[in-house]
Design brief:
With about 400 residues, the chain is α+β, with helices and mostly antiparallel strands. The protein has helices at about 60-65, 90-95, 100-125, 135-145, 150-160, 170-180, 245-250, 275-280, 285-305, 315-325, 345-350, 355-365, 380-410, and strands spanning about 10, 15-20, 30-35, 35-40, 55, 60, 75, 80-85, 195-200, 205, 215-220, 225-230, 230-240, 245, 260, 265-270, 335-340, 370-375, 375-380. The protein starts with 7 loop residues before the first strand and ends with a helix.
Length: about 400
């Protein structure tokens, strides 16, 4: 039997600041019991889905607390409020004692993730993936043209499965016959009792546009998450042992928004809805890990969204590098560091056209403390990125203030 969970109640007067954007070392989050709270950010890139006014039953501060990063928002009491304070170390017990609250947090995080991810895609990639299974054919065609037959065969198969009357079904069948001798595809039609799966390197776990009803926990190896945009493969993330992916499709029953491909031979646990609901009650540590993962991703997307507002493309590149350092908790001192991506991926991160991006990369590499080694961006001094990013952020604030002042006087 779970121990009694002791949660503290705290009161704030109207207009009081409860949490402040940028503050480090968040150790607790809040659930509103009575009153209303306004959430704001220094730079509003997109308005939050559902608005920025929270009431009883809503929560805030979870992103910073569960991710271990700085606060991404400021919370101010609109009325006198009574809040339930939940310390980070109490979260596992909260899951055990009050599963509905934990599930509400996870489901709202999932919706927030998808909303922000779509906003980021519009701003950086200038495109949005089709959210229906017919997109599978486009994915398959892309990989076939790249002679990546494992991925192409998988995507063609899924297209035929989910679009049996689609206009390209016959073409897909012909393509599959042609590339079959060169393709290695596994788990084309998954079984419900296949809890543990092994994927050889370069095989596809799922494709964007494919209906999804499972999340995955990496037990061994690594997985890359990519999206096909404007006939290019854009790398979104490389996930490693212990990471969870595919959760948004399971929680919201919506098509996959990206492709998951084995970056090296990997073993994963496949968790369907039935297993997930059982795990909520029996394995709270996994649910806590999922919450931490979603919090980490939301924090990361907010940083990326703020990056889109930096008008100087070189400044955006420095800022993107700093975000990656902070995300991976690299000490921001004078030590060297090599990223696990190269110039092409950095250009994609900041959403620049290839030609312009290559010009900015050349400017970046004029800095003697930044090099490309084995197609990876390498720093001889991490603090140089911090210094340059602070400079460009300061210039951006000055420019924003100038524009606001000009707007007020009608210039």
């Amino acid at each position: 039997m779970a121990n009694q969970l002791q949660l503290a109640f705290v009161n704030f007067k109207k207009d009081s600041y409860i949490i402040v954007e940028g503050k480090q070392n968040a150790d607790r989050f809040f659930i509103i019991r009575q009153g209303k709270v306004r959430i704001s950010k220094e730079v509003e890139v997109v308005e939050e889905e559902g608005g920025n006014i929270l009431g009883p039953g809503d929560f805030f501060g979870v992103v910073a607390t569960m991710s271990g990063h700085s606060h991404i928002e400021t919370a101010q009491a609109l009325t006198d409020v009574t809040l339930i304070s939940v310390q980070k170390e109490q979260y596992v017990q909260l899951i055990q004692n009050n599963t509905p609250v934990a599930m509400k947090i996870i489901l709202q995080f999932s919706k927030r993730m998808r909303f922000l991810d779509e906003a980021l895609t519009r701003l950086t990639l200038k495109n949005t993936a089709d959210n229906d299974p017919s997109h599978l054919f486009k994915v398959a065609e892309y990989y076939a043209k790249q002679s990546q037959f494992n991925q192409a065969y998988f995507a063609y198969h899924q297209y035929i499965k989910y679009c049996p009357t689609g206009q390209n079904v016959q073409v897909a069948r012909e393509r599959m016959v042609k590339i079959a001798p060169y393709a290695k595809a596994v788990y084309l039609d998954k079984k419900a009792d296949e809890f543990t799966r092994t994927y050889p390197k370069d095989t596809m776990i799922f494709s964007e546009g494919q209906p999804g009803d499972e999340l995955y926990i990496i037990q061994k190896g690594s997985v890359k998450i990519v999206k096909i945009v404007d006939n290019n493969e854009v790398l979104l993330a490389v996930l490693k042992q212990g990471d969870i992916f595919g959760e948004m499709a399971l929680l919201e029953s919506k098509p996959r928004s990206a492709n998951a491909i084995a970056y090296e031979d990997c073993t994963v646990l496949a968790v369907n809805k039935e297993n997930f609901e059982r795990m909520v009650g029996t394995q709270p540590q996994i649910i806590s890990r999922l919450t931490q993962l979603l919090a980490e991703r939301i924090w990361f997307i907010y940083k990326q969204l703020a990056n889109t507002l930096i008008t100087d493309p070189l400044g955006r590149m420095y800022d993107a590098l700093l975000i990656q350092l902070e995300k991976n908790r690299i000490p921001l001192g004078t030590s060297p560091h090599t990223f696990d991506f190269g110039p092409k991926e950095l250009i994609n991160m900041v959403g620049l056209p290839t030609a312009e991006g290559n010009m900015v990369i050349r400017k970046l590499l004029e800095n003697p403390k930044i090099r490309v080694v084995d197609n990876k961006i390498a720093l001889t001094d991490v603090s140089e990125v911090v210094k340059q990013t602070e400079y460009y952020r300061k210039m951006q604030k000055i420019e924003r203030a100038r524009r606001e002042a000009a707007s007020r006087i009608g210039l």
